[in-house]
Write a structure and sequence with these properties.
Oligomer: single chain
Shape: elongated
Helix content: 25-40%
CATH class of the largest domain: Alpha Beta
Strand order of the largest sheet: 3-4-5-6-9-10-11-12-13-14
Order of helices and strands: EHHHEEEEEEEHEHEHEHHEHEHEH
Structural class: alpha/beta
Bound molecules: S-adenosyl-L-homocysteine
């Protein structure tokens, strides 16, 4: 029988498992602490448990391993990228970014992605599978262990669409912010979505304090559809209403992300339409000059026109920043992450973020 991954149980579930084995409930507290605070990777190291209990745990459960297949350290800025190999051979990537306010990790939520955004490398090859709660947590645990530095911020902006892996994603947020676990403040967690309306609304009612970032990328329905197939499924007006609802329910200001694609969505009309959408909303706009992807024909605007775009929006009263690029020498850029298998050649993604996790 397949052993169950013990890291995917939240505190209450673990307690049920452990007391179900006939153990006292304080044992579950000890085990949870080993797994989610001391971040241990094997049962043998749980030295305050009896040998017998450790053996029983070993027989019934596993702590899913993730091998570091590659670890790159940027020379340009304090950014590091990790390529993890999952137990089934799928590869995912995570990025550690150090800021003055703390260390932020960008994690993946799926192996591959089925959203198909035209400019994103993660879409190429489609979805392989959802990540488990444990696999989302372990990206942070392993990076904290390897770096020896506390992680204080999380952005869910690596490969995958978190709201397409809804239950695991929400459980992950609860566990990583649990006082019995790493206790990372929910206010320091940002998740980015391409706009899956029903799940945005569900998320608004979860009682979480995380920041929601919406990938807008088009200043009207038609332009958005051109870049994002998922826009065909959810009308822009409905997506924006879901954003308003999220703000209304949580009090958390929405961040809008807008990848600037030269000649496609960086025109004067876009400034006008974007202003119309955003001016009446309490929000923040984060511009991401496109990171070119080999297979796609889209280009990045030059620095001057990106700045010009930003300044014009600012003049119109929009709260806007250009996302600062991180780890450029190690391919550290949004949307360049792709699903890879061991031995397959491909480029890797990084994630850049300053303003979003600073919010
Ligand atoms: N599935 C989530 C997370 C995606 S990654 C979402 O769609 O929001 C985080 C951000 O990077 C998204 O806004 C995404 O659209 C953007 N992005 C993807 N590829 C990019 C690229 N090549 N250049 C710039 N931004 C990109």
């Amino acid at each position: 029988m397949d052993r169950k991954d013990i890291c995917s149980y939240d505190y209450r579930e673990l307690e049920d498992e452990i007391t179900g084995m006939g153990e006292k409930s304080f044992r579950s507290r000890q085990i949870y602490e080993w797994l989610h605070v001391k971040l241990i990777g094997d049962f043998a190291g749980m030295t305050n448990l009896s040998r017998q209990l450790r053996d029983r745990l070993e027989g019934e459960y596993k702590i899913a391993g993730m091998r570091v297949a590659e670890h790159q350290i940027s020379k340009a800025d304090p950014t590091e990228k990790f390529l993890f190999e999952l137990e089934d051979g799928n590869m995912i990537e995570s990025v550690l970014m150090r800021y003055t306010y703390g260390n932020s990790v960008c994690i993946s939520s799926q192996a591959g992605c089925r959203m198909g955004c035209r400019f994103c490398a993660s879409a190429i090859g489609g979805l392989k599978r959802n990540l488990t709660v444990s696999e989302m947590l372990r990206q942070i645990y392993q990076i904290q262990t390897i770096s020896g530095e506390r992680i204080s911020n999380i952005v869910v902006m690596g490969t995958g669409e978190p709201l397409d892996n809804y239950d695991n994603f929400v459980k992950f947020v609860r566990m990583v912010s649990d006082e019995y676990g790493l206790n990372i403040s929910q206010r320091n967690i940002t998740a980015s979505t391409c706009g899956i309306v029903p799940n945005m609304r569900r998320l608004a009612s979860e009682g979480l304090q995380i920041t929601l970032a919406l990938s807008l990328h088009g200043s009207n329905q038609e332009k958005r559809e051109r870049l994002m197939p998922v826009a065909g499924q959810y009308e822009l007006t409905d997506v924006l209403e879901a954003c308003d609802y999220y703000f209304q329910e949580t009090g958390r200001r929405i961040t809008f992300e807008y990848s600037l694609v030269s000649g496609v969505n960086d025109q004067p009309d876009d400034i006008r339409e974007l202003t119309g959408i955003l001016r009446k909303r309490n929000c923040h706009l984060n511009l991401i000059p496109l990171n070119p992807v080999r297979e796609r024909d889209y280009r990045k605007p030059d620095r001057e026109s990106a700045l010009d775009f930003k300044n014009k929006l600012e003049k119109n009263g929009i709260n806007v920043t250009i996302r600062r690029e991180r780890g450029s020498d190690i391919d550290g850029a949004c949307g360049q992450l792709r699903r890879r298998y061991a031995g397959e050649n491909g480029r890797k993604q990084g994630e850049t973020d300053e303003d979003i996790c600073n919010d």
